[in-house]
Amino acid sequence: MVTLTHYLIASAALFCIGLSGVLIRRNILMILLSIELMLNAANLLFVAYAKAWGDLGGQMMVFFIITVAAAEVTVGLAIAILLTRQLNTLNADEVKTLKW
Amino acid sequence: MVDVHHAASAVATDPAAAALAAKLGWSILLAPLCASVLILLLAIHRKTLAMFCAVAGLAVSLACTLTLFFMVQNGRLPVPFEASVTWISLGSLHVPFGVLIDPLSLLMTLVVTGVGSAIFLYSTGYMHDDPAASRYFGMLSLFAFSILAIVLSNNWIQLFIGWELVGFCSYMLIGHWYAKPSAAEAGKKAFMVNRVADFGFMIGILWLWSVSSTELAERTLHFATLQERLPSLLESGILPIATLTGIGLLLFCGPVGKSAQFPLHVWLPDAMEGPTPVSALIHAATMVAAGVYLLVRAFWLFELIPVTLNVILWVGAATAFLAAVLALAENDLKRILAFSTLSQLGYMVMAVGLGGSIVGMYHLTTHACFKALLFLAAGSVIHGTHEQNIWKLGGLWRSMRWTSLTFLIGSLALIGFPGLSGFFSKDEILVLAREHNLGIYILATLTAGMTAFYTGRLWFVAFAGQSHASKDHHNKEHAHVHESPAIMLGPLFFLSALSIIAGYLGIPQFLGAHHMEFHIDVAATSTVVVLAGITLAWLMYGKRTLSSQSVVRGLALPQSFVENRYYIDEIYGWYVAIIQQKLIAGSCAWIEQNVIIAAVNGVAALTRSAGEMLRRLQTGVVQTYALLFVVGLIWLLTRHLAP
Question: Most buried among B41, B107, B354, B445, by the most CB within 10 A?
Fold first, then answer.
């Protein structure tokens, strides 16, 4: 029997994987992917609670998040392309001209 | 708007007379102010209009004063009468602005407007060719308003405002010919010296205000209320005599500066750089007399404090004597008169110190007439000859007959020649001195002798004797010595008449004195001393049988000491240059440079170096920021979600 607790654990695990990906991976594409993981962890949470509480508001929220995530990925990929063109790199450590 | 209240002691007042008196009082005060505003705003380039406005403004004041005077004399207006409005009301501080009519203020107003009108008229002749005459008349009118604000004031604040305004007008008028460096310097000096004195004066006023409250009533600056309240406060012991002594001494600072008493007398001789009618009006007849007027106005206060009265007495006596000594060695026509003014002011202050406020006021009035006359006559001489050094003048008696005659009348009144106004008022002071203090009496009689001597010297050198023009035909300036126009001679005749009759008008009786004793022995002594002074002057400068050098050497007089005016200017100069500039200002500058600026710069450097360190946190690596963000988030969550 899969209970709400299982969903919550799965969602938390996904979120932590995504967060560590954002903090650890140096490739910008991988960072973008990790952000997607974190967003989907949130989606999973919304859906799980919607089912448990019988409230469709949670499912509706998920559609918003998917839309926003699509827009976010568009902007992120555009930045990645521009970075490649300007600095010829996708390594986040090398992109540090915005300081003092 | 105008809230008229009558003094408690007044008999039933005719309301119509009271309303008229209030209107007249405000008109006296405001007419010269209107004239001044009109001149300065509209007539600054129209000389004739400016002259007309100034004379008309003061004439209105004079007419109103005379009307009030006759109302009081006829008994239609019981005095003291007050018309006053509340000007400032701040919590417990109520500052009235008003007009106080009593015999004292009425007499002083008559002096200001009467003598002032003569001087204004004279000025229209004297300043006729001056390009800046409009500014001159604007300031003269403003001065008239300011001095009237002092004289008619019913409270200390209005008096102080007038006090400062006359100082300002004096500054502007001394420096009227500001292109001349000495005139500009003299104006500044007069202003600065008066600032020093007025600082003490202001503290005195504020202190007086702060102690003036009773259990039942709030603090006040109103003359009449204070006069009712302070004696009882003093008797009940709420107000210690030491406090009142301090207040009295601080208040006396004002007259010491304004009436140029020793040791703040230094500005008055220099103030002679201004146009001569200004010297006559401000620096002889009215403004310098305002200090004495204040002493008389607040005499009830000084009377309560014997220590202050003694200080006043000795400052006055010292000024009278020391200034007369200075006049002996002076060679400038106007400066001799300035030292003489100092000496006579000393007499007045001394009279107040002796407890004779009415006598002091009497001498003020007669002095205003004859000293204004002397200055105007001197102005006429300067107008005709363009020369002020008495040794370069001479024989004026022949070329300027009328001016010389009026100058002679003024001189005789000044030295107290029997029958003229100065004789009566000076005699009253001498009588008072003999009753109270023999040392002061001897000093005052000696001063009278010196007055006669230096006046005689001035007359024999400048007016009698040989004309320098006749000896020296090449000197074109002197070849054209001419008598002054009628507009200048008229005021001279008017003031001459006043100088002769002022002793017979019953001025002390008008001020409330019951009887004035006439002591034949005092009068005889002073007359003998005066005649001795004149005779000595005649021997030395008229007949020239005695050489002045041999007299100086024979008596071992400290000539250079006197010629340098006791080195007081030098002492003040040394004080300002060494003590004030080098020591005080220098150490202030050092503290500023090394403490204040160092602290400010230190804070700036600290901020900068803290910034240097903190900016290392800004790596530019996006993941560092993300990490910090996550750490912060976790910290916040643990704080808020933990029970």
Answer: B354
CA B6 to chain centre: 30
Report the Cα B398 to chain-centroid distance in Å: 36
Q: Write the ipTM.
A: 0.85
Residues 6 or more apart whose Cβ sits within 8 Å of residue B19 = B4
- Is A97 part of the contact surface with chain B (CB cutoff 8 Å)? yes
Of B151, B154, B145, B124, nearest in space to B136 by CA: B124
From residue B163, give the alpha-carbon distance in Å to each of B147, B170, B286, B341, B577.
7, 11, 12, 19, 29
Distances in whole angstroms, Cα of residue B73 to Cα of each of B28, B296, B623: 18, 21, 101
- Indicate the pTM of the whole model: 0.77
Q: Determine the Cα–Cα distance for residues B330 and B326; give it in Å rounded to an integer.
A: 7
Q: Find where tokens 């300027």 sit.
A: B400
A92: which chain B residues are within 8 Å (Cβ-Cβ)? 621-623
- Out of A26, A96, A100, closest to residue B615 by CB: A100
CA–CA separation, B468 and B392 (whole Å): 7
B498 with B366: CB under 8 angstroms? no
User: What pLDDT is recorded for position B204?
Assistant: 92
Selecting from A19, A23, A99 the residue whose C-beta is nearest the C-beta of B618 gives A99
pLDDT in tens, B473-526: 445 444 567 777 888 888 889 989 988 888 888 788 888 777 666 778 888 888
Q: Are B472 and B387 in contact (CB under 8 A)?
A: no
**CA distances (Å), B14 to each of B6, B19, B27, B76, B78, in order?**
11, 9, 20, 7, 9
Q: Is the dihedral of CA B557, B563, B564, B568 positive or negative?
A: positive
